[in-house]
Every structure is written in C-alpha cells, then in structure tokens.
Amino acid sequence: MLVKEITAEDRKYWNDFISDHQHGHLYQSYEWGEVLSYDGTKVFRLSAERGGRLCATMLLVKRRLRPTNLSYFYAPSGPILDFADRQVLTALLEKIRCLARLHHAVFLRVDPDYPNEDQNVRTSLLNLGFINLPRNWSYHNYPRIVMRLDLARDEETLLRQMRRKHRQHIRVFDSREITIDAGIHEENLFEFCQLLQQVGNRKGFVVREHHYFHQVMDQFVRRGNGRLLLARQEKEAIAGVLSVTFGNKSWYLYGASNNQQRHVHPNERLQWEMIKWAKSRGCISYDFGGTGTDYPVPDDSERHPLYHYKMGFGASVMYLTGYYDYVFAPMLYRGFRLLEDKVLPWLVRSIVQCQTLKTWNKSRPEPREASQ
Questions:
Q1: Of 220, 265, 203, residue with least CA distance to 238
Q2: What is the rounded radius of gyration, in angstroms, for the C-alpha atoms of the chain?
Q3: What is the pTM of this model?
C-alpha cells in the first residue's frame, strides 16, 4: 500500500477518482482545496494506491487553534474510499499521524458523505478508534442535515412537484421587468458579495471574505463548472445565486437578495434556472445544503424558513452519518471539545453582532450641521 501526497500534475487523476465514486463530494475535489487555501490555510491531498491503482483519497485541511501553535485536521465530506477496506484506512491513518506530529495536530475530524443508516461506515471508523460525536450540527464544519433534489425526472415533473407558491413565483417572474444575467466579472462578484452582506446582517451569520468568493469564481465559474446568476431590476442587482458542479452532481453554495425587493421573490426563478443548468450538464442531484433545523425536522416546519423554502422545490432531507474524531492528544482534545461546545457559539454570535454594527455604522447618514 502506497500513501502519498499528490501535486497539481495529478489534478485530473484525483478528480476522476472522486467524481466516479458513488459518495464522491465537491468538498473533496482538488479545486475545493484551492478555494479553502485562499487565506494561506494548509491543505493536504493524500492518495492511497494498491498495485498501482488508486483506491482512496482524502483532502485534509489544517485548521489552526489560535493563539497557540496547535491545530486540527478536517476532511470535509471525506475520505473517499471503501470503508470495508480496513487496510487502506489504517495506511491513511499512519500517514496522518506523521503529519500530526509535524503540525501539532490535536485530532482528525471526518464527516463522510454517507447516510446515517449506513452501519458499515460507523462500524469501520469506531473499530479503528474514532469517536462518533453525538451532535447534529457544527459551527465550523459542514452540515450533517442536508437537502437534495433528485434530478432524474424531467423538467415538467420537477416543476409540478414544487410547492404551488414556488411555481407561481417562477412563472410570473417575466412579467415583473426583471432580467437575469450570468456574472463572470469582478464587478458582478462585488455586487453579489454586497447582497450576501445584507443577508448576513439580516439573518445573523458571518459572511466570508471577498477573496474566498474570488477563488470560487476562479476555480469553478471561470472554468465552466460553476455559475453566478444575478437578477436585475432597472440594472440594479437585487438577488443572486451561486452554484457549482463536480462530476455528475451539483451544489447550491450561496444565495442572496436585497432588503427592498425580497417581496418579488427573485430567488425562486434563479434557483429554477440553476436546476435546469445542472440537469443540462447531466447532473443527477442538486444539493441545497443545510436545513437550518435539528433532526428529525420539527412538525412546525414553517417556523424554519430555510428548510421550508428548500422543501418547496421538492428537495428531500438527508441525515448524514455525522462527525467522527480520531484523537492524537487526549488531554488537549478534551479542552478543545469544551471550548467547541461552550465558547465557540458565544464567539460566533459576538462576531456577527460586530459585523452587523460595523455595516450599520458605514451605512448611517452623516449628521447634518445645525442651521445658523
């Protein structure tokens, strides 16, 4: 068994394996590693070969535990392999232990893109010494509870299975003098980021830096594997949606609308255009991302607008196998878990409040001088 780090020359070799795998995921693609390294974050791409044949890949992200020199490793929606193959899992772990010593990693976290009922994944990881975290969400990892739309049906059927209100918003869109254009330039990205900032302030979440979105544009949109659609009213961008494809799957990454024109519901039409685009590229699924709820989803779903909105497109809830940690430094790990559960939620809320206040102060009109 040969385990090694791959280079840019092996990009296609890496991507072909992941995109052909039943449980391959965008977040393990070569390009997503480039996106995550926008701010200097260290990314490792480990491959395992048996007899000259690729049998496993794992994209690892090194996340610093500031202000210390400690870190932890995260394999988002990975690794990609046959979980019944104990030999390949063991070989990958041996390589990661070496990296952990070099980079002062406290633990490794994985969250494979498998349904919760797949006992093979859970059994394999637990037998190797992983800890299964008893949680349905994380402030700093990708969501466990996601919504996906099956694209196997024709467009007419996809429309018919939507909520009636969604269909109405899609069909009356053309009568509202709103246009749609595909954004590929920096000024289009800037417009979209401004819309996202408005949504972040409105709903209370942290918006990533502009450089992150610039990387998404470079790695996906400008390569033809992503799309940024903007809805305009009198040339002003009032809404936008950013989606990408990898292999035969598609992911909705971000959507936003301004505070003034939300009542015209432009995002339903933008999402429909993205769904049709993904289907035209041969995609079998459209991933809407997280539900914004716990699991099982509460009966009063209308009180959970994100879930209610995505369900309106006919998307189904998928409850994934969850988060697993492999611990390298037990005492430090216990301290991290305490901070993760108790301190991190408070810290995120504080950052959001500061971000909202900063934006509000920038947009506040200058006080007028008193008339003489």
A1: 265
A2: 22
A3: 0.91
